[in-house]
Amino acid sequence: MTGLDKRLSLPEFAGRITSGMTVGIGGWGARRKPMALVRALLRTGVRDLTVVSCGGPDVGLLAAAGRIRTLIAPFVTLDSVPLEPHFRAARESGALCFEEWDESMFLWGLTAAAHRLPFMPVRGGLGSDVPRRNPRLRTVTSPYEDGEELLAAPALDLDVALVHMNRADVRGNGQSLGPDPYFDDLFTEAARHTYLSCEQIVDRFAGPPQSLLVQRQNVTGVLHTPRGAHFTSCAPDYGRDEAFQRAYVRAAGDPGTWREFEARFLAGDEHAYQRAVDGREPEEATA
Amino acid sequence: MTTPTGATRAEICVVACAEAWRGDGEILAATAGTVPALGARLARLTFSPHLLLTDGEAMLLSTPQDPGRIEGWLPYRKHLSLAARGKRHMMMGAAQLDRYGNQNISCVGDWARPRRQLLGARGAPSNTVNHPVSYWVPRHSPRVFVPRVDMVSGVGYDRAAAQGPAVARFHGLRRVVTDLAVLDFATRDHRMRLASVHPGVGTDQVRERTGFALAVDGEVPTTREPTEEELRLLREVLDPHGTRDREVRT
């Protein structure tokens, strides 16, 4: 048993993720993604990951770097830009294996894992091509009088979950102050180990009790990463950096431009990233 | 091009979308796209006052006239539960739709290695088997209305019937609104039917822009014009900056 103080550095965190792991990533699209943790993974040699995510640029960056073997997701989007360019490229070149899940299957798959159940029954997915494209999906017949045949969403058991919170304490309690907790608490409950990054570490939480989303018994490591969700949103601390996201999308459209983008923003550590973001010319930051 | 009331094509489309929620009662009107969102808000302010609306994220709006005033909290997890209980009628988009209303938002081409990867199935499979669904197609074209979709994200009537009671039980597609026409499934075998053409659009034009034979019974009516009050609400209250005209060109 480690001490109550679970703070880790980004390299310490990244060193605990090994190739072949199943990694759940919280947030939703381009909203409150644990991007500092994703960037830390990009600095390691980790590969062959199974990524479980309501996908956004977390999936995009990992796919662009060739780190994903299998993606389990109901969608990948940047919200204000509907299609994620790196995810598109990876799918269109056959670079990753895609398990396309319906959103409600995804919710119940995480719930099953969080409750140590093998599956949860769900109606969503039936009749669509989702089960036809995924031979491991099975149906289950209700043992009650209705006798309905439903989809059995398999448990999404995770080796690790990565989530980003507005506030946390050093013990690993996490607070979400934005409008939507997404599935982040479920991710932490479905995982053997959770690494929680946060905007601020606090001694004493303020705000309504319902905002205390993540509990320390589910958390292995805490990382203080100010603006650690950038360029995704982290309401109410900051909104999405739309100018940066547009630059990301433009860069992703061409291999040469993408190499320049990587050299400028992703070649150094997290401090270097944040400095490069701040170092943009005013016209770039609003372009 | 405008009509006798001076309504633009976009305004005709907003009203045609609004009509999808007529008589729906106290359920959530969910949308994807500008014109359906305006339609839902217009319906809420006129003939379907019990509808619930979101701010596009996790908040329920007390009234579309005051986006700062909220009446409830609907984060994604509660939103999915509400959908599973059927308390929702969503108007979704579609990259492809076939004659039975099977919808694709996943990818174009072979699923294993698509020519064009799109969003992913998102909630379309569960939406279509849990509550009423309509579709919005801002550019009516044979690329959207295809004989066979490349991936069934949203379930159509033929699939629902073939898959048995667990799928058909709560399945129901209401209408498809496009920039040219309103389509529905009011045929014996639920094949898509040309329900009305927008003012100034010919039935031949719709047929040419549809990649399968549409059912037609008798004279095809014209989509109704907005009322004066609807036009006022739309132009002065809901969309004073005219975002509707960017989604549907006049």
Structure characterization notes:
The complex is a heterodimer of chains A (287) and B (250). Chain A has one domain (10-102, 156-278): 3-Layer(aba) Sandwich (Glutaconate Coenzyme A-transferase). Chain A has helices at residues 10-15, 35-42, 57-64, 85-92, 103-114, 184-190, 242-252, 255-266, 270-278, 282-286, and strands at residues 22-25, 49-53, 68-73, 97-100, 119-122, 138-141, 149-154, 158-168, 174-175, 191-201, 212-214, 221-224. In chain A, strands 1, 2, 3, 4, 8, 9, 10, 11 and 12 form a nine-stranded mixed β-sheet that branches. Chain A has 287 residues and is of the alpha/beta class. The model of chain A has no long low-confidence stretch (mean pLDDT 97). Chain B is an alpha/beta fold and 250 residues long. Chain B has one domain (9-244): Glutaconate Coenzyme A-transferase (3-Layer(aba) Sandwich), CATH 3.40.1080. In chain B, strands 1-4-9-10-11-12 form a six-stranded mixed β-sheet, with helices on both faces. In chain B, strands 2-3 form a two-stranded antiparallel ribbon. Chain B has a two-stranded antiparallel ribbon with strand order 5-6. The termini of chain B are close together. The chains are: A alpha/beta (287), B alpha/beta (250). Chain A binds chain B through residues 28, 55, 73-77, 82-83, 87-88, 91-94, 100-105, 107, 122-130, 133, 148-150, 179-183, and chain B through 57-59, 73, 75-77, 80, 83-84, 106-107, 111-130, 151-155, 159-160, 163-167, 170-171. Chain B: This is CoA-transferase. Chain B: It holds the Pfam family CoA_trans.
